Prior knowledge:
single chain; alpha+beta; three-stranded antiparallel sheet; 15% helix; disordered N terminus
Amino acid sequence: MLWKHSEPSPVQTSIQLDDDGFTIRGSYATRVDWITVSRIVAYKVDLWDEDLICVAFTLESEKVPIETTEADDGWKPMIAIMVDRFDVSGVWWSKVAFPAFDDNRTVLWTRSR
């Protein structure tokens, strides 16, 4: 089960990219190395009057996925690299975005065992 929040964090969160992955900085820092990603899931959170699109990364060594949201500074460049690196279908956004106010959970990528 993915942790879901009910509203955007009051702390501004930013995603800082580098060659090996990215660091999410907000009230604390979290590191995601591309090589350790075992699963990527996209979904929406209903914020009452709008939706928030999220992408969560499960790492090999972690049980709780690391969530990023479209409200995070640096999210679009991170998504562009993710789509290229993991060969994610370009239609994922439509699958998650529509219909409005539904979770629309979509597995974008899973590591083959």
